[in-house]
Design brief:
The complex is a heterotrimer of chains A (255), B (294) and C (287).
Chain A: E1 4-15, E2 18-29, E3 33-37, H1 44-52, E4 59-64, E5 67-68, H2 74-79, E6 82-84, H3 97-105, H4 123-135, H5 151-165, E7 169-173, H6 181-196, E8 200-205, H7 208-214, E9 217-222, E10 225-230, H8 232-237, H9 239-247, H10 249-254
Parallel strand pairs in A: 3-8, 3-9, 6-7, 7-8
Antiparallel strand pairs in A: 1-2, 1-4, 4-5, 9-10
Chain B: H1 3-28, H2 36-52, H3 58-77, H4 79-82, H5 85-105, E1 122-123, E2 126-127, H6 130-153, H7 155-165, H8 167-172, H9 177-203, H10 213-226, H11 233-247, H12 255-269, H13 280-285
Antiparallel strand pairs in B: 1-2
Chain C: H1 2-32, H2 39-57, H3 60-86, H4 92-113, E1 129-131, E2 134-136, H5 138-160, H6 162-172, H7 174-179, H8 184-210, H9 219-232, H10 237-257, H11 264-278
Helix pairs in contact in C: 1-5, 1-8, 1-9, 1-10, 2-3, 2-4, 2-8, 3-4, 3-8, 5-6, 5-8, 6-8, 9-10, 9-11, 10-11
Classes of the chains: A alpha/beta (255), B mainly alpha (294), C mainly alpha (287).
Chain lengths: 255, 294, 287
């Protein structure tokens, strides 16, 4: 058996009468790229927000490396070592690319009052941040203002920030949406390399093709429930999945 | 030096200290505050009461005043944690009106008469007046600017910048919104408290109307004029808005109109301030970057 | 008991006038998301313009019309010259602009009309009533009737006409309204015409009610109405009216009966903070 890095059990989130996520069990194994797939409105983003601390679950638990993290606020989940990106990119717009990564380098300090007062642009911090930027292929953009970058670069910048925070696990929220064809294949290469460096990746995606090619394992949600999990080829042949996707194909493409 | 110039200079320096505090809250952490004069007033009243009624000296009272201002800053900063921007703006206006009303209507605070007979500041047994007091204020200003400079270079400061830019992204890299908003409020209100204490011992008589809402607007205008979130903007703004009314003194009747119209023109055509992004001063001062970068 | 009823009637009149001013603020906030502090200056200008027309023509009807036209032009000028170009900046930018306009207009009023209090010696042509020993003066009747008519008209416009529909669409999302073929900029201007006209009516009513018109008569309403639109739920017009009525009555009764150490002008803000702690979106607001 492989190690379980993150374990969700019976996770639910209800908004009034709507069961956005309903009794979902999910394991993320160490070292894999796990895809969380589902048509629009399936509850992927809500599930993602439950793990990353944006929402408090209605019921159920989340353990990360054996530590219970459900109900913790976002910044505490981040401090546990879970990095994340945003579907609608959220750069610190008036800071440079390098400064954006440096902000994330403070992850070990923001929780301890007396460690807040040192300089954040020190040589060693800058060097470490540059290394991360090299890893995502953005070193030459380091001095650019983040707010002026095109979407493809912003997605990489968010991955860079997530890598600083998540030594073991990063959560990617539809990092491929809105990208051009060649940007998608570059990003696929980057994510594989991140996995090969030993970092586990949870990928939310509604683009079937990307997910099938990239993920080691896939979990499919529909109407808030887990309807299938397994290897990409098993998922492709799963009747429930085909039905869920065909049933909402029109809506999916309109979005 | 001319006594008149020293008077104006001292007031400008005291305002600058206070405005640097506001810059931490609004410019660094991005939390709108339209009630900064209330904290300036809390510092002034606390120092005035401690020195006139409790018999402390300025130096004994000062740490208590600053701590008290910071503490009240936390309490009154709590709304910023759960209110959206516009609500927060109006709530801070409300705080200003309520604090002013308390000063005015609670007999302990001297009521409409205010507090008089506030002692001068002594240093090493020397009574500080005129130039000496100006220099004292100037040293405090230097200290405040140094703290602000340090803060912008520290992890605490960059956490506030991140919150200002994108709150949820900041949380995703471990920055607690609650902790750092309150931190900015505490630093900002402590500086206002310091400014208020100096003001009380300089004027030696204070009353509630010194700390009314228009004063908050003046403080905010100083930052807007100088350049929000910049290191030297608050000083520039305080100097300009401190001197302009004096320059307009010859045209007595039109003075306030000029002043308000100038503020309107500034905010309409240079909303980022004189030292802010894309401002005229920046365009004059900074040469075109080398290497053809935009 | 008789005193209580008199106070209550005055309180309702006070609340009506607050409601008239607050409505304009709620209308502007609903569409542009700008805190239109200068609205209270428009109200002051309305009182002056009405007084000017009245003293030259002797006709109250012309006074109201003149005030409404002049204020509409002023309101649209503020919107076109200051607010619209500042929409893309953070909210404090137009807010400071608005405060600067407010102070500038106050100063202009002082310079043009003088710093002293002018009287507005007009009687509104409304009947007087006797109700169980309590007299409802013709001015009170006028305030009640005019407020009811204005509120009724506004309700009719916003719910029953195409203009109202276009205004609601614009307040949802300006680009989408544009895409639907609505000339949103024109709608915004119409909202300012409506809000400013109502402010003029309120200014003239207050001038006659207290028989006073002076440059700083807008200062206290300027900030109090801000608190009122918060209590009502930012941008909600029914909320604004209810909050205004409650405040008018509460202020008048508290001054008459309770011995509180706070001035009545702080009451609005205390109520506001209490409401915000209880329901952070206001009485009738939506998230």
């Amino acid at each position: 058996m492989t190690d379980t890095l993150l374990q969700a059990r019976g996770l639910s989130k209800h908004f009034g009468g709507l069961k956005a996520v309903d009794q979902v069990d999910l394991d993320i194994h160490t070292g894999e790229i796990l895809g969380l797939l589902g048509p629009n409105g399936a509850g992927k983003t809500v599930f993602f927000n439950l793990i990353s601390g944006v929402y408090r679950p209605t019921s159920g638990t989340v353990h990360f490396q054996g530590k219970r993290i459900d109900g913790l606020p976002s910044h505490r989940v981040a401090a546990c070592g879970v990095g994340r990106t945003f579907q609608i990119v959220k750069p610190f717009a008036s800071l440079t690319v390098l400064e954006n990564v440096l902000v994330a380098r403070g992850i070990t300090r923001y929780g301890t009052f007396r460690r807040l007062w040192g300089p954040w642009q020190s040589k060693s911090e800058t060097r470490a941040a540059m290394k991360i930027l090299e890893r995502v292929g953005m070193a030459e953009l380091a001095e650019r203002k983040a707010g002026l970058l095109p979407l493809g670069n912003l997605r990489r910048l968010e991955i860079a920030r997530a890598l600083v925070v998540g030594h073991q696990l990063i959560l990617l929220d539809e990092s491929f949406s809105g990208l051009r064809h060649e940007e998608i294949s570059q990003l696929e290469t980057l994510i594989r390399r991140i996995r090969d460096d030993g970092i586990t990746v949870l990928l939310i995606e509604h683009n079937m093709r990307v997910t099938m090619g990239l993920c080691d394992r896939i979990v499919v949600l529909d109407h808030g429930r887990k309807i299938a999990q397994g290897k990409p080829q098993d998922i492709q042949e799963n009747d429930l999945v085909i039905e869920a996707y065909l049933g909402s194909r029109g809506g999916r493409h309109a979005a | 030096m001319d006594a008149y110039l020293i008077t104006i200079g001292t007031l400008i320096v005291i305002y600058a200290i206070t405005v640097y505090g506001l810059n931490v809250i609004v410019g660094y952490a991005g939390q709108i505050s339209l009630g900064h004069a209330a904290f300036f007033g809390i510092g002034a009243y606390a120092s005035a009461l401690l020195t006139t009624k409790a018999g402390l000296s300025f130096w004994e009272a000062l740490p208590i005043v600053i701590l008290l201002s910071g503490l009240i800053g936390i309490v009154l900063g709590l709304p910023s944690l759960r209110l959206r921007e516009d609500f927060l703006a109006i709530t801070t206006i409300g705080i200003n009106f309520i604090v002013e009303a308390l000063f005015l209507y609670v007999p302990y605070f001297g009521g409409a008469l205010g507090i008089g007979g506030i002692p001068r500041v002594f240093l090493f047994g020397i009574k500080l007046k005129g130039m000496a007091f100006f220099l004292l204020c100037l040293s405090f200003l230097a200290l405040v600017i140094f703290i602000c400079w340090w803060f912008t270079r520290s992890w605490g400061g960059v956490a506030c910048f991140a919150l200002r830019e994108e709150e949820s992204a900041a949380a995703s890299v471990g920055i607690s919104p609650v902790r750092f908003k309150l931190l900015a409020f505490v630093i900002g209100t402590m500086m206002a408290g310091l400014g208020g204490a100096l003001y009380a011992h300089y004027m030696r008589f204070i009353s509630a109307t010194d700390f009314s809402f228009p004063m908050s607007i003046t403080f905010l205008s100083m930052i807007v004029l100088g350049g929000m979130g910049t290191l030297w903007g608050p000083l520039l703004g305080a100097v300009l808005l401190g001197i302009l009314p004096e320059l307009f003194r010859p045209i007595v009747d039109y003075r306030i109109l000029f002043y308000t119209a100038l503020l309107l023109v500034m905010i309409r055509f240079q909303p980022a301030g004189l030292l802010g992004e894309g401002s005229i001063v920046r365009k004059w001062l900074i040469l075109k970057p080398a290497g053809g970068r935009p | 008991m008789q005193l209580f009823f008199e106070q209550l009637l005055n309180g309702i009149a006070m609340g009506s006038i607050y409601a008239l001013v607050t409505l304009g603020l709620a209308l502007v906030y609903g569409i542009l998301r700008i805190l239109h502090v200068a609205h209270a200056a428009v109200y002051t200008v309305g009182a002056y313009a009405g007084l000017f027309c009245y003293s030259y023509t002797g006709s109250l009807l012309l006074a109201f019309l003149g005030g409404m036209i002049f204020c509409s032009i002023l309101g649209v000028a503020i919107e076109r010259l200051v607010y619209y170009p500042l929409l893309k900046y953070p909210p404090y930018v137009p807010l400071i602009g608005s405060i600067a306009i407010m102070l500038s207009i106050e100063e202009i009023c002082r310079l043009v009309a003088g710093p002293y209090i002018l009287t507005f010696p007009a009687t509104l042509p409304f009947p007087e009533f006797q109700l169980g020993g309590v007299t409802i003066s013709s001015t009170l009747t006028a305030v009640y009737v005019i407020t009811t008519v204005v509120l009724g008209l506004l309700w009719f416009i916003s719910t029953k006409t195409e203009l109202g529909l276009a205004m609601r669409a614009t307040s949802q999302d300006i680009p989408i309204a544009d895409a639907m073929g609505i000339n949103s900029h024109a709608i915004v201007s119409i909202a300012f015409v409506i809000g400013s006209s109502i402010a003029a009516i309120a200014g003239i009513l207050v001038g006659i009610y207290y028989n006073q018109v002076y440059p700083t008569m807008g200062t206290v309403p300027a900030y109090k109405t801000l608190a009122l639109i918060v209590v009502g739920g930012l941008g909600s017009m029914p909320g604004a009216v209810i909050a205004s009525m409650l405040l008018g009555v509460a202020e008048t009764l508290l001054i008459g009966y309770a011995d509180i150490p706070l001035p009545r002008d702080a009451l609005a803000f205390i109520a506001m903070i209490a409401v915000l702690m209880w329901r952070s979106e206001g009485l009738m607001g939506s998230k």
